[in-house]
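Per your request, structure below.
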Protein backbone atom coordinates (compact mmCIF):
# COMPACT_ATOMS: atom_id res chain seq x y z
CA UNK A 1 0.00 0.00 0.00
CA UNK A 2 2.77 2.45 0.90
CA UNK A 3 4.66 1.72 -2.31
CA UNK A 4 1.49 2.31 -4.37
CA UNK A 5 0.66 5.55 -2.48
CA UNK A 6 4.19 6.92 -2.91
CA UNK A 7 4.13 6.01 -6.61
CA UNK A 8 0.74 7.68 -7.17
CA UNK A 9 1.13 10.91 -5.21
CA UNK A 10 4.81 11.38 -5.92
CA UNK A 11 4.64 10.83 -9.67
CA UNK A 12 4.86 14.55 -10.46
CA UNK A 13 7.54 15.36 -7.88
CA UNK A 14 11.24 15.74 -8.53
CA UNK A 15 13.83 13.69 -6.64
CA UNK A 16 12.96 13.50 -2.92
CA UNK A 17 15.70 12.76 -0.40
CA UNK A 18 17.23 10.21 0.08
CA UNK A 19 16.58 9.32 -3.57
CA UNK A 20 18.50 11.05 -6.35
CA UNK A 21 15.98 10.24 -9.10
CA UNK A 22 12.29 11.20 -9.46
CA UNK A 23 9.71 8.77 -8.08
CA UNK A 24 8.16 8.40 -11.55
CA UNK A 25 11.37 6.72 -12.71
CA UNK A 26 11.59 4.36 -9.72
CA UNK A 27 10.40 0.74 -9.66
CA UNK A 28 8.49 -0.78 -6.73
CA UNK A 29 11.74 -2.30 -5.46
CA UNK A 30 13.49 1.07 -5.68
CA UNK A 31 10.70 2.75 -3.68
CA UNK A 32 10.88 0.06 -1.00
CA UNK A 33 14.67 0.28 -0.80
CA UNK A 34 14.77 4.10 -0.74
CA UNK A 35 11.75 5.00 1.39
CA UNK A 36 9.83 2.08 2.93
CA UNK A 37 12.92 0.44 4.40
CA UNK A 38 13.72 3.58 6.41
CA UNK A 39 10.14 3.72 7.73
CA UNK A 40 10.40 0.07 8.79
CA UNK A 41 13.83 0.58 10.38
CA UNK A 42 12.59 3.41 12.61
CA UNK A 43 9.45 1.41 13.38
CA UNK A 44 11.64 -1.49 14.57
CA UNK A 45 13.47 0.90 16.91
CA UNK A 46 10.16 2.22 18.27
CA UNK A 47 8.89 -1.32 18.68
CA UNK A 48 11.99 -2.23 20.67
CA UNK A 49 11.50 0.72 23.00
CA UNK A 50 7.81 -0.13 23.47
CA UNK A 51 8.73 -3.73 24.29
CA UNK A 52 11.17 -2.56 26.97
CA UNK A 53 8.51 -0.25 28.38
CA UNK A 54 6.03 -3.12 28.62
CA UNK A 55 8.47 -5.33 30.56
CA UNK A 56 9.44 -2.49 32.92
CA UNK A 57 8.16 -4.45 35.99
CA UNK A 58 10.43 -7.35 35.03
CA UNK A 59 13.34 -4.95 34.63
CA UNK A 60 12.71 -3.51 38.09
CA UNK A 61 12.59 -7.01 39.60
CA UNK A 62 15.83 -7.88 37.80
CA UNK A 63 17.67 -4.93 39.31
CA UNK A 64 16.38 -5.71 42.82
CA UNK A 65 17.29 -9.41 42.59
CA UNK A 66 20.75 -8.60 41.21
CA UNK A 67 21.58 -6.28 44.11
CA UNK A 68 20.30 -8.87 46.57
CA UNK A 69 22.64 -11.48 45.10
CA UNK A 70 25.61 -9.12 45.25
CA UNK A 71 24.90 -8.16 48.89
CA UNK A 72 24.47 -11.84 49.81
CA UNK A 73 28.00 -12.60 48.58
CA UNK A 74 29.55 -10.29 51.17
CA UNK A 75 27.58 -11.64 54.13
CA UNK A 76 29.76 -13.49 56.67
CA UNK A 77 29.36 -17.21 57.19
CA UNK A 78 29.11 -20.03 54.73
CA UNK A 79 25.70 -21.48 54.11
CA UNK A 80 25.05 -25.00 52.92
CA UNK A 81 23.98 -24.95 49.26
CA UNK A 82 21.86 -27.66 47.75
CA UNK A 83 23.32 -29.52 44.77
CA UNK A 84 20.58 -28.18 42.50
CA UNK A 85 21.53 -24.61 43.50
CA UNK A 86 25.28 -24.81 42.87
CA UNK A 87 26.47 -22.41 40.18
CA UNK A 88 29.91 -21.54 38.87
CA UNK A 89 31.45 -19.35 41.63
CA UNK A 90 31.07 -15.62 41.00
CA UNK A 91 34.86 -14.89 41.15
CA UNK A 92 35.37 -17.20 38.14
CA UNK A 93 32.56 -15.45 36.28
CA UNK A 94 34.06 -12.04 37.03
CA UNK A 95 37.49 -13.27 35.90
CA UNK A 96 36.09 -14.66 32.66
CA UNK A 97 34.04 -11.53 31.97
CA UNK A 98 37.09 -9.32 32.59
CA UNK A 99 39.16 -11.44 30.19
CA UNK A 100 36.49 -11.12 27.48
CA UNK A 101 36.22 -7.34 27.94
CA UNK A 102 40.01 -6.87 27.83
CA UNK A 103 40.16 -9.07 24.73
CA UNK A 104 37.54 -6.95 22.98
CA UNK A 105 39.37 -3.77 24.02
CA UNK A 106 42.70 -5.09 22.72
CA UNK A 107 41.30 -6.22 19.36
CA UNK A 108 42.62 -3.58 16.90
CA UNK A 109 39.85 -3.96 14.31
CA UNK A 110 37.06 -3.27 16.82
CA UNK A 111 38.16 0.30 17.72
CA UNK A 112 36.66 0.17 21.23
CA UNK A 113 37.82 2.96 23.56
CA UNK A 114 37.16 3.40 27.28
CA UNK A 115 33.75 5.01 26.69
CA UNK A 116 32.53 2.16 24.47
CA UNK A 117 33.88 -0.44 26.91
CA UNK A 118 31.98 1.16 29.80
CA UNK A 119 28.83 1.34 27.66
CA UNK A 120 29.31 -2.30 26.71
CA UNK A 121 29.62 -3.36 30.35
CA UNK A 122 26.56 -1.41 31.51
CA UNK A 123 24.24 -2.21 28.59
CA UNK A 124 25.43 -5.81 28.29
CA UNK A 125 24.92 -6.48 32.01
CA UNK A 126 21.52 -4.78 32.02
CA UNK A 127 20.06 -6.55 28.98
CA UNK A 128 21.51 -9.95 29.90
CA UNK A 129 19.88 -9.67 33.33
CA UNK A 130 16.56 -8.64 31.77
CA UNK A 131 16.74 -11.53 29.30
CA UNK A 132 17.55 -14.11 31.96
CA UNK A 133 14.67 -13.06 34.20
CA UNK A 134 12.22 -12.77 31.27
CA UNK A 135 13.05 -16.21 29.89
CA UNK A 136 13.06 -17.73 33.37
CA UNK A 137 9.63 -16.36 34.28
CA UNK A 138 7.79 -16.43 30.97
CA UNK A 139 9.74 -18.30 28.29
CA UNK A 140 12.10 -17.96 25.34
CA UNK A 141 9.44 -16.69 22.94
CA UNK A 142 8.78 -13.64 25.13
CA UNK A 143 12.37 -12.42 24.87
CA UNK A 144 12.78 -9.42 22.55
CA UNK A 145 16.35 -9.91 21.32
CA UNK A 146 15.87 -7.62 18.32
CA UNK A 147 14.31 -4.87 20.43
CA UNK A 148 17.11 -4.88 22.99
CA UNK A 149 19.79 -4.99 20.30
CA UNK A 150 18.28 -2.04 18.44
CA UNK A 151 17.93 -0.15 21.73
CA UNK A 152 21.62 -0.76 22.48
CA UNK A 153 22.55 0.52 19.04
CA UNK A 154 20.33 3.60 19.42
CA UNK A 155 21.76 4.53 22.84
CA UNK A 156 25.33 4.04 21.64
CA UNK A 157 24.85 6.02 18.44
CA UNK A 158 23.08 8.89 20.22
CA UNK A 159 25.95 9.14 22.72
CA UNK A 160 28.50 9.04 19.91
CA UNK A 161 26.60 11.73 18.00
CA UNK A 162 26.43 13.88 21.14
CA UNK A 163 30.22 13.57 21.59
CA UNK A 164 30.79 14.49 17.94
CA UNK A 165 32.16 11.08 16.99
CA UNK A 166 31.05 10.71 13.38
CA UNK A 167 33.99 9.06 11.62
CA UNK A 168 34.23 5.51 10.28
CA UNK A 169 36.09 4.18 13.35
CA UNK A 170 33.28 5.05 15.73
CA UNK A 171 30.71 3.71 13.28
CA UNK A 172 32.51 0.35 13.39
CA UNK A 173 32.72 0.54 17.20
CA UNK A 174 28.94 1.07 17.47
CA UNK A 175 28.22 -1.95 15.25
CA UNK A 176 30.69 -4.10 17.21
CA UNK A 177 29.04 -3.08 20.47
CA UNK A 178 25.58 -3.96 19.20
CA UNK A 179 26.84 -7.31 17.86
CA UNK A 180 28.50 -8.22 21.16
CA UNK A 181 25.41 -7.29 23.20
CA UNK A 182 23.19 -9.17 20.72
CA UNK A 183 25.30 -12.31 21.15
CA UNK A 184 25.23 -11.94 24.94
CA UNK A 185 21.44 -11.52 24.93
CA UNK A 186 20.92 -14.56 22.69
CA UNK A 187 23.22 -16.74 24.80
CA UNK A 188 21.61 -15.52 28.03
CA UNK A 189 18.20 -16.50 26.70
CA UNK A 190 19.15 -20.00 25.59
CA UNK A 191 21.21 -20.62 28.75
CA UNK A 192 18.35 -19.55 31.01
CA UNK A 193 15.99 -21.84 29.12
CA UNK A 194 18.43 -24.73 29.50
CA UNK A 195 18.90 -24.03 33.23
CA UNK A 196 15.14 -23.87 33.74
CA UNK A 197 14.75 -27.24 32.01
CA UNK A 198 17.63 -28.64 34.06
CA UNK A 199 15.99 -27.45 37.27
CA UNK A 200 12.80 -29.31 36.38
CA UNK A 201 14.86 -32.45 35.75
CA UNK A 202 17.01 -32.08 38.89
CA UNK A 203 20.29 -31.21 37.13
CA UNK A 204 23.27 -29.42 38.71
CA UNK A 205 23.47 -25.85 37.32
CA UNK A 206 27.27 -25.72 37.53
CA UNK A 207 27.63 -28.81 35.33
CA UNK A 208 25.20 -27.36 32.83
CA UNK A 209 27.04 -24.03 32.77
CA UNK A 210 30.42 -25.70 32.17
CA UNK A 211 28.87 -27.74 29.35
CA UNK A 212 27.40 -24.56 27.85
CA UNK A 213 30.84 -22.88 27.79
CA UNK A 214 32.54 -25.92 26.21
CA UNK A 215 29.70 -26.34 23.74
CA UNK A 216 30.18 -22.80 22.41
CA UNK A 217 33.69 -23.34 21.07
CA UNK A 218 32.99 -25.61 18.09
CA UNK A 219 29.78 -23.86 16.91
CA UNK A 220 31.48 -20.44 17.13
CA UNK A 221 34.34 -21.64 14.90
CA UNK A 222 31.95 -23.32 12.46
CA UNK A 223 29.62 -20.31 12.23
CA UNK A 224 32.54 -17.89 11.79
CA UNK A 225 33.88 -19.99 8.92
CA UNK A 226 30.42 -20.21 7.36
CA UNK A 227 29.91 -16.44 7.47
CA UNK A 228 33.22 -15.78 5.72
CA UNK A 229 32.37 -18.49 3.18
CA UNK A 230 29.03 -16.88 2.35
CA UNK A 231 30.61 -13.42 2.15
CA UNK A 232 33.27 -14.63 -0.28
CA UNK A 233 30.71 -16.40 -2.43
CA UNK A 234 28.00 -13.75 -2.67
CA UNK A 235 28.90 -10.67 -0.61
CA UNK A 236 26.69 -9.46 2.24
CA UNK A 237 24.15 -6.87 1.18
CA UNK A 238 23.87 -8.21 -2.37
CA UNK A 239 20.63 -9.43 -3.93
CA UNK A 240 21.71 -13.04 -3.40
CA UNK A 241 22.64 -12.44 0.26
CA UNK A 242 20.68 -9.35 1.42
CA UNK A 243 21.31 -9.85 5.18
CA UNK A 244 18.37 -7.60 6.22
CA UNK A 245 19.17 -7.52 9.96
CA UNK A 246 22.79 -6.51 9.40
CA UNK A 247 21.69 -3.93 6.84
CA UNK A 248 19.16 -2.56 9.32
CA UNK A 249 21.84 -2.11 12.02
CA UNK A 250 24.21 -0.45 9.56
CA UNK A 251 21.47 1.87 8.33
CA UNK A 252 20.53 3.00 11.86
CA UNK A 253 24.16 3.47 12.95
CA UNK A 254 25.17 5.43 9.86
CA UNK A 255 21.97 7.45 9.89
CA UNK A 256 22.38 8.64 13.51
CA UNK A 257 26.17 9.01 13.72
CA UNK A 258 26.64 10.59 10.30
CA UNK A 259 23.28 12.41 10.24
CA UNK A 260 21.96 10.60 7.15
CA UNK A 261 18.52 9.59 8.43
CA UNK A 262 15.78 11.40 6.43
CA UNK A 263 13.73 13.30 9.03
CA UNK A 264 10.35 12.86 7.28
CA UNK A 265 10.72 9.08 7.02
CA UNK A 266 11.87 8.91 10.65
CA UNK A 267 8.70 10.71 11.78
CA UNK A 268 6.48 8.46 9.64
CA UNK A 269 8.17 5.33 10.99
CA UNK A 270 7.77 6.50 14.60
CA UNK A 271 4.08 7.31 14.02
CA UNK A 272 3.52 3.88 12.45
CA UNK A 273 5.10 2.16 15.45
CA UNK A 274 2.97 4.08 17.97
CA UNK A 275 -0.29 3.68 15.99
CA UNK A 276 0.22 -0.06 15.56
CA UNK A 277 0.78 -0.38 19.31
CA UNK A 278 -2.40 1.62 20.05
CA UNK A 279 -4.31 -0.70 17.69
CA UNK A 280 -3.14 -3.65 19.86
CA UNK A 281 -1.25 -5.21 16.97
CA UNK A 282 2.19 -6.74 17.80
CA UNK A 283 4.55 -3.90 16.86
CA UNK A 284 7.77 -5.69 15.97
CA UNK A 285 6.24 -8.27 13.56
CA UNK A 286 4.35 -5.48 11.78
CA UNK A 287 7.26 -3.07 11.34
CA UNK A 288 9.69 -5.88 10.50
CA UNK A 289 7.24 -6.73 7.72
CA UNK A 290 7.63 -3.14 6.49
CA UNK A 291 11.39 -3.45 6.56
CA UNK A 292 11.73 -6.86 4.87
CA UNK A 293 11.47 -7.06 1.06
CA UNK A 294 8.26 -8.30 -0.56
CA UNK A 295 9.93 -11.52 -1.69
CA UNK A 296 10.46 -12.57 1.93
CA UNK A 297 7.14 -11.22 3.18
CA UNK A 298 5.22 -13.22 0.58
CA UNK A 299 6.62 -16.56 1.71
CA UNK A 300 6.09 -15.64 5.37
CA UNK A 301 2.48 -14.73 4.61
CA UNK A 302 1.85 -18.04 2.82
CA UNK A 303 3.33 -19.95 5.76
CA UNK A 304 1.00 -18.04 8.07
CA UNK A 305 -1.98 -18.94 5.87
CA UNK A 306 -1.05 -22.63 5.99
CA UNK A 307 -0.84 -22.39 9.79
CA UNK A 308 -4.24 -20.66 9.89
CA UNK A 309 -5.86 -23.37 7.75
CA UNK A 310 -4.36 -26.18 9.84
CA UNK A 311 -5.63 -24.57 13.06
CA UNK A 312 -9.11 -24.31 11.54
CA UNK A 313 -9.12 -27.98 10.56
CA UNK A 314 -7.70 -29.55 13.69
CA UNK A 315 -8.18 -29.19 17.42
CA UNK A 316 -5.09 -31.21 18.35
CA UNK A 317 -2.18 -29.01 19.39
CA UNK A 318 0.29 -31.81 18.67
CA UNK A 319 -0.53 -31.66 14.95
CA UNK A 320 0.21 -27.93 14.83
CA UNK A 321 3.51 -28.55 16.60
CA UNK A 322 4.29 -31.24 14.01
CA UNK A 323 3.93 -28.64 11.27
CA UNK A 324 6.29 -26.28 13.10
CA UNK A 325 8.87 -29.06 13.51
CA UNK A 326 8.63 -29.99 9.82
CA UNK A 327 9.04 -26.33 8.84
CA UNK A 328 12.07 -26.02 11.12
CA UNK A 329 13.60 -29.04 9.39
CA UNK A 330 12.99 -27.47 5.97
CA UNK A 331 14.66 -24.23 7.12
CA UNK A 332 17.67 -26.11 8.49
CA UNK A 333 18.00 -28.24 5.36
CA UNK A 334 17.78 -25.18 3.12
CA UNK A 335 20.47 -23.44 5.18
CA UNK A 336 22.79 -26.46 4.92
CA UNK A 337 22.30 -26.63 1.15
CA UNK A 338 22.96 -22.90 0.88
CA UNK A 339 26.30 -23.29 2.66
CA UNK A 340 27.17 -26.28 0.46
CA UNK A 341 26.38 -24.33 -2.72
CA UNK A 342 28.43 -21.37 -1.40
CA UNK A 343 31.37 -23.74 -0.86
CA UNK A 344 31.08 -24.96 -4.47
CA UNK A 345 30.99 -21.32 -5.59
CA UNK A 346 34.15 -20.43 -3.66
CA UNK A 347 35.89 -23.52 -5.08
CA UNK A 348 34.92 -22.32 -8.60
CA UNK A 349 32.89 -25.47 -9.27
CA UNK A 350 29.80 -23.40 -10.13
CA UNK A 351 29.52 -19.64 -10.80
CA UNK A 352 27.78 -17.39 -8.27
CA UNK A 353 25.46 -16.04 -10.98
CA UNK A 354 24.39 -19.40 -12.41
CA UNK A 355 20.67 -19.50 -13.20
CA UNK A 356 18.41 -22.34 -12.08
CA UNK A 357 18.07 -25.35 -14.36
CA UNK A 358 14.25 -25.57 -14.43
CA UNK A 359 13.15 -21.92 -14.36
CA UNK A 360 10.87 -19.83 -12.14
CA UNK A 361 7.67 -21.62 -13.19
CA UNK A 362 8.91 -24.94 -11.83
CA UNK A 363 10.10 -23.26 -8.62
CA UNK A 364 6.71 -21.63 -8.09
CA UNK A 365 4.82 -24.88 -8.73
CA UNK A 366 7.12 -26.78 -6.37
CA UNK A 367 6.65 -24.13 -3.68
CA UNK A 368 2.84 -24.41 -3.96
CA UNK A 369 3.00 -28.21 -3.74
CA UNK A 370 5.36 -27.96 -0.76
CA UNK A 371 2.94 -25.63 1.03
CA UNK A 372 0.01 -28.00 0.38
CA UNK A 373 2.06 -30.99 1.57
CA UNK A 374 3.09 -29.12 4.72
CA UNK A 375 -0.55 -28.48 5.61
CA UNK A 376 -1.50 -32.09 4.83
CA UNK A 377 1.39 -33.51 6.89
CA UNK A 378 0.45 -31.30 9.83
CA UNK A 379 -3.13 -32.56 9.76
CA UNK A 380 -2.38 -36.27 9.79
CA UNK A 381 -4.33 -38.01 12.55
CA UNK A 382 -6.27 -34.83 13.43
CA UNK A 383 -9.93 -34.49 14.30
CA UNK A 384 -12.11 -31.86 12.72
CA UNK A 385 -13.73 -29.32 14.99
Amino acid sequence: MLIALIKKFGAEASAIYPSTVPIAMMSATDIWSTYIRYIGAVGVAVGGLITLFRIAPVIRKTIVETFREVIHLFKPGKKRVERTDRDIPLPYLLLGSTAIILGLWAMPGFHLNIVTILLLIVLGFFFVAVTSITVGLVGRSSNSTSGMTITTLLITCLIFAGLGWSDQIHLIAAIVMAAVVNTAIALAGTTSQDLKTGFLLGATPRSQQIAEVIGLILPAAAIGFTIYLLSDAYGFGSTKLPAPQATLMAMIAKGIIQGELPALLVIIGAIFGVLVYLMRVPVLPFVVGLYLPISLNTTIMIGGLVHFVVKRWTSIEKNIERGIIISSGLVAGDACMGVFIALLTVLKVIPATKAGLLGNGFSFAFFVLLSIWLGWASRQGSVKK
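The chain has three domains: 1-54+262-292, 83-260, 296-379.

Regards,
D.
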